[in-house]
Write a structure and sequence with these properties.
Largest sheet: 8 strands, mixed
Number of strands: 8
Radius of gyration: 44 Å
Oligomer: single chain
Order of helices and strands: HHEEEHHHEEEEE
Helix content: 25-40%
Distance between the termini: 131 Å
Structural class: alpha+beta
Strand content: 15-25%
Amino acid sequence: MTSILAEVPPAPRRLPWATLASLALHGGLLLAAAFTLARQAPVILPPEPPPIAVEMVSPAEFAALQPVAPPPVLATQAPVAEATPAAPATEPAEASVASSGFTIAPDGTITATTLYAANLLQQPDMQRVRQGLRGFADSERLIQICNIEALEQIRRAAPLFDPDTLVAYAFADLMGSGFTLIARGGAFRSRRNWYGIAFTCTAAPGYEAVSGFEFKLGEAIPESEWEEHYLNAADADE
């Protein structure tokens, strides 16, 4: 009897149970180690900078934020013959008054015999001032031409001063009649200090010259009064 042997394919090799358990154990240990390292050395990202708030302000809005002095008041009243001193006394401002080009009354009132505003306005560096004056109302042109005259008269009458700014209405409202302006309580700045001044100024028709000017220098104005009367030690852009 012939026996026929059928070829039986070998059964797939299986890993023993102990080997599978060992692989599973080592895999778990690797995962645990990786997790532990991740917790011990976290990745720290730099914080994002806080947002910056920017508010856009127009030039007109910026100007509105700045302190503004009230506009001068020009009242209609007949001119008076004598101007009175402007501010409380701490230091006389009328020392060393020059006599050339002036007459000086016993009470200290100085009458100018030479006038300068018209010639000053013709200087090349005064072109913008000339153009600006033409755009003002007559009352403002009167104030400006008298201020120009006042600063030059102070400079020439009292060489110890170096006036650069004048506020004609610092301590009292302005008064006027026709072409005449009366400032009873003005103030002028010299070397970052303020001094009182009172003046009577008459402009020529057209407000491009002054035909008469008399004034009386006051005294040093205490710094404690500057802010109340809009007087600054220096201009903002200096």
